[in-house]
Design goal:
alpha/beta; Rossmann fold; 2 domains; 5-stranded parallel β-sheet; 4-stranded parallel β-sheet; 9 strands; 41% helix; binds phosphoric acid mono(formamide)ester
């Protein structure tokens, strides 16, 4: 187990090793247990986390803020509008200055002009900041979400979870969303050696850099990465169907909106997909779900759904990241 992650950024899981991800997960499970028995664990007493949200959030904001409180520290919420970013203060100056006050900075930034621009800015902030920068979702990856998701899969599938049929699937939505979740899942599963089935209609291939990184890991560790354009084939015998919408890396947004309409019926995840999956299979979604588009109400509110357990695990997983990086 590699435990010294102090001072590191948490922008992409590609910067972390299998052992380091296992450390984060182990600490997350430990915090979850400590909460369960009411054991205080104020390991970040007197420390402050800045949270800069250029996009809205329910889960990320509340779980980070609560997480810092439970760790004995404090979290501060800002938007670009209420900082001097509104008057065009540079990202570099912002990173330099906040480093003089804070012990860590979480940033959420996506939906800019072009795919990759938000990641470039995130890296710019990280280069100028001398404190850990944590990715709270950019246009490429949602690593904090992913740590909670892997915890949840482990809890539901048990110790042999890596050999379960875990499907990470595209789903229909009117809104064009970030591919941050599937790309983080791909990297985490590839590093941990967990089998993964990717399902998406043609045109929704993931970022080539992410695919190449994952394929190399799969070639090295012998676990299985499968890809299909058929959602029914993916659903057959699945243990987990984690289905959410994402935008195409290769199409402009307007074209993507027109193109995706043809997938509305087959890729709205429902009991017809879960009838093909294993009896005790799980439905996952990072939330907020586009109900009636990505998923039917009956499925997300039904017995297969584990979305609220998944949301809870954001808290435990992020506390682990904070405690390891900011200590
Ligand atoms: N899943 C997720 O990141 O939720 P929020 O957008 O509410 O933070």
């Amino acid at each position: 187990m590699k435990t010294n992650l102090r001072g590191r950024d948490f922008i992409t899981l590609m910067d972390y090793s299998k052992e380091e991800i296992e450390t984060i997960l182990a600490v997350a499970f430990s915090f979850k247990m400590q909460n369960a028995i009411g054991q205080p664990h104020e390991v970040l007493k007197g420390k402050s986390l800045g949270m800069l949200f250029a996009q809205p959030s329910t889960r990320t904001r509340i779980s980070f803020e609560t997480g810092m409180t439970e760790l004995g520290g404090h979290a501060q919420y800002y938007t670009e509008e209420n900082m001097q970013r509104k008057n065009k203060e540079t990202w570099e100056d912002t990173g330099l200055v906040v480093s003089r006050y804070l012990h860590g900075l979480m940033v959420r930034l996506y939906d800019l002009e072009k795919y990759g621009m938000a990641r470039d800015i995130m890296n710019q902030i990280a280069r100028s900041a001398s404190i850990p920068v944590i990715n709270g979702l950019d246009d490429k990856e949602h690593p904090c979400q992913c740590m909670g998701d892997i915890m949840t899969i482990q809890e539901k599938l048990g110790e042999n979870w890596k050999r379960g049929k875990i499907v990470m699937s595209w789903a229909y939505a009117d809104r064009v969303k970030s591919p941050g979740v599937p790309q983080a899942m791909l990297i985490a599963c590839s590093l941990l050696g967990a089998d993964l089935t990717l399902a998406y209609p043609e045109g929704y291939e993931l970022d080539e850099e992410y695919m190449a990184f994952a394929e190399k890991n799969y070639a090295d560790n012998g676990a299985k990465l499968s890809i299909t354009n058929d959602i029914y084939e993916a659903a057959a015998d699945a243990d987990v169907i984690y289905a959410k919408s994402w935008g195409s890396c290769s199409m402009p947004k307007e074209r993507d909106r027109e193109y995706r309409a043809q997938f509305r019926e087959d890729w709205r995840i429902s009991d017809k997909h879960f009838d093909l999956a294993k009896k005790k299979s799980c439905y996952m979604h990072p939330l907020p779900a586009s109900r009636g588009e990505e998923v039917t109400d009956a499925l997300i509110d039904g017995p297969h759904s584990i979305v609220y357990d998944q949301a809870e695990n954001r808290l435990h997983a992020q506390k682990a990241v904070l405690a390891l990086l900011l200590n």
